[in-house]
Amino acid sequence: MRILVQKITGLLLFLFILSFVSFCLLKLVPGDPVRSMLRVDDVAVTNDQIQQMRAQLGLDQSVFIQYGYWLQNLFSLDLGNSYMTGRPVFIEFIEKIPYTLMLTGTSLLVMIIISLPLGILSALYRGRLTDHISRIFALIGSSIPSFWLGLLVIDLFAVKLRILPSMGEGSWQHLILPSITLGIAMSAVYVRLVRASILESSHQEFIRSARARGIGKNRIFTFHLMRHSLIPLLTVFSESIGSLLGGTVVIEVLFAYTGLGKWIVDAITARDYPIIQGYMLFMSIFIVVLNMLVEWSYRYINPAIAIGQRKKGATS
């Protein structure tokens, strides 16, 4: 319980600092959301109209006063309304997140299907043809930018073969190309991680002890080797979740996929401050909570970690 309270306190402090810094940095970004709303380039408006709209949105106040109002509304679970649509930020977030979760889930499925077998085979047949092929795949895959890979799959499957849609959403077919693109980009990294983790775990003392006791190879691999190999994989995955979300943004824009990625890019273009601030808050909470869940999962994968934490708490 004490560890949980410390984690929650650290999370709240982190969110406060992050929200304040991001709020201040947003005000330094070039551009005026009022001019974007009034479409100055298309319709002639007076300076009085601009100042009136700025006062209506509270943008004529200092940064600290604006942040104080935003923080006060946050305590009542009000993230404000979008400048462009006038709708609540939270409602728009709820509408967009299922699309991003579906894309992320299918991309992770593609990544697991590719990286896990290749990484395992590369470790089991180290130095052989299978190992060389998987390492070449990992090298090429990590060298290709995700947006360029996306253009390649669009050109092949949507333009030349015409068997899959190139953009939009609405059916499971629209998920195939962006999921393949993002999944291949991630699997190139995780093939090497799986291979390195299995090779490192295979030299541990408990593996040699299990072999000496006459335990079967399949049982050793499934219940000892793979279980021990999951710990560094989970650690790297939790640390790379930020890049995963960044890759989702690029893919969503490339495939015109309506999700959080395209939503935040459109908001940045329009200088829609409430959406940008709300997105950063949601994503920071998601990343921190995910890291906490991964850390707690160590206690079940490796009980020695839980024992060490209890001893540390007892001595402190």
TrEMBL record:
Pfam families noted in UniProt: BPD_transp_1, BPD_transp_1_N
Signal peptide positions (record): none
Domain ABC transmembrane type-1 residue range list: 97-294
Membrane topology type: Multi-pass membrane protein
UniProt keyword terms in alphabetical order: Cell membrane, Ion transport, Membrane, Nickel, Nickel transport, Transmembrane, Transmembrane helix, Transport
Tree of life domain: Bacteria
Compartments reported by the entry: Cell membrane
Transmembrane segments: 97-124, 136-159, 171-191, 230-255, 275-294
Gene3D superfamilies to which the protein is assigned, alphabetical: MetI-like
Subunit relationships: The complex is composed of two ATP-binding proteins (NikD and NikE), two transmembrane proteins (NikB and NikC) and a solute-binding protein (NikA).
Record-linked NCBIfam families: Opp2B (NF045470)
Family: Belongs to the binding-protein-dependent transport system permease family. OppBC subfamily.
Name by which UniProt lists this protein: Nickel import system permease protein NikB
